[in-house]
Fold this protein.
Amino acid sequence: MIYKTLVTGFPRIGENRELKRALEHYWSKTASLQELRTTAVELRKRHWLFQKRQNIDFISSNDFSYYDNMLDTIVMLNAVPERFSGIEDETERYFAMARGTAGASAMTMSKWFDTNYHYIVPELSGTLDFRLCPGKILTEYAEAKKLGVKTKINVIGPITFMGLSRASKGENPFGYANRIILLYKEFLARCAELDDTLYIQMEEPYLVKNPTEEVLALLKAAYQDLASVSSNIRIIVTSYFEHSNEATKILAETPIWGLGLDFVHGTQNIQGLKYAKDKTIFAGVVDGRNIWRNDLGASLFLLGKIADIVGKEQVVVSTSCSLLHVPYSLRNEAESDRKQYLAFCCEKVEELSLLGSAFHGEVVSDSDKIGMETARNRPLGTQYDGPADSAFGEQKVRAGDFAERNALQRKRFHLPKLPTTTIGSFPQTLELRSLRRDFKKGVISEEAYEQGIKAYIDDCIAFQEEIGLDVLVHGEPERNDMVEYFGEMLEGFHFTDNGWVQSYGSRCVKPPIIYGDISRPKPMTVRWISYAQRRSRKPVKGMLTGPVTILNWSFVREDIPRPLVARQIAAALCDEVADLQAAGIAIIQVDEAAFREGYPLRRENVSAYERWAVDSFRLAVSSAAKETQIHTHMCYSDFTDIIKTIEAMDADVITIETARGGNRLLDVFEREGYHNEIGPGVYDIHSPRIPSEEEFEKQILSRLEVLDGKRMWINPDCGLKTRSWEEVRPALQHMVSATRTVRLALERNESPLA
């Protein structure tokens, strides 16, 4: 039998974010667990049957999750941390691990490789009660089969599970291999009972990250073992986002059935095919990470080259990775000149079906469609002819070194020890979202809109003054999203109506699309920041999103060099910094939340990225005077291997997320002698928990164990837009009160940390 097509994975949030709403109603206790489950069943049915109608041969089950697939794998292995063991209800325990409870902090989240999707990080220790709990997987397989859809089962592979885990006491996560792989064998044995032939997609993207000899040896032993469990199990080991040639060579020597390889972002994968001529190759040629239409002619040419190596009958046309990373469908998008160049999830499945049929010789009447799609694969129909690389020019940097700037800034601001601030945004209330929506639709006047925005800023400033924060923010009531807001103010961006992509849990983002040259027609933030500053004698931070983050959190036109896009954004931000400064704004935060996320997965590509990414940030802030304090913020980062790059960025203050990760993320700053100021997060804003004043004190004292209190700030992990005022008010009050208590103890020399 010839298999033509495979979808690596399908989005689960729903065409209209149905899962998001169902989750949030369940968490707020306005909907029952049964109502949540009903929504999930309907979404799975809809997604399976859509793919079946498109004649997809390999459709996934277990790509659905209520929160995160890595969290589901933790549950499958019963690798539940001890602090959650007292929660008897399975659903309550599941969401507690992701979001925390009053008595237990949530598990850490991190970025899924170089994407904006967040996964729950497994915590491995000798106290875990490892055992197989495959109920979810078996139930969903049976659910699909009842609908007439025989699925492949998607599972995070054991190498990736361990490679992305954190083990206690500095242990090597791969030291748990024997126990974990034994459970995977047991899992495959259970699956073997489901059908005469069953396909298991083992997702192993960890293999694209320069695997060590230790990992490769374990890989060979693991899949030699796993692929021998049952003759009716066919294992497809799938990697994505880059090439995995080292692993391909190893896996070719094991009895696995197939290899899923990304030929879009891992173009060098074709070089590894010479080792895998007897394997079925799932050729990822439909881009699962960007939203431009496929160049079907080019894809067919590439598939032909792959077939020349392994044989045409061995090739199955596939998506490059899960379609989780693109919006659901173009159906709800308004007509525009650019829409014809776009393809979201559903359109990519249609492209995949067409490619599969064409490649395997089943298309004659649609041959004209192949030509049409090939002709319009570029967003403007032509090759990009914008500025050449010479536009990069000489790198601009701000005046003065940190020591000189820091002395001037301390004299200017007179901030106390352990100054307190927040990252930027305050809760985005229903009333605030309605205000922006009504103004955009013309329901209310500009005057009414401005009055509403000013009232929110007034309340934010008054609240911050009341609790005693030292450096204030305006709360960002005018902003729908930290990237989209700036894109709307810049030339060269296109926006979708319903292009939502899951970021984590129920959190969705709507990335803008960069299609041309970027420029700033007028100031973007000065008006509202200046208004807020007039409401307080304390400094109010100007809030900007950095060039690398705007780039990484947008869908970027594929034929424009990314470094050039970043530099164009940076030039626009440089003008904005100058205008804020001229308006009297003395502290400006340029967020680079996605800086670490953008790092290439292959070591050999890192230095080039660091060079242009750092240059872009430094250009963005190059107009700042020595007395102007520049802050930046980074999310979900392990800074061990990028500390020198952070130093090169040379921000006066960096704030980072450490509330879940603790001092483990901070040791490198002290060990490497980082001299600039730093704000380690002490409030986990991704959890609804309200930490007590005592808990904040412990967090602050813990940070002082590794950081010099003379250069440390106190702040939440991230912006507060996703939290409610009922959570934010007491949490920030506790944070400020705890900081005062610690300050007094240090001043009285009552602490050994003084």
Remarks:
- Confidence is low (pLDDT under 50) at residues 364-368, 371-392.
- Residues 76 and 135 are 8 Å apart (CA to CA).
- The chain is about 40% helix and 10% strand.
- The radius of gyration is 26 Å.
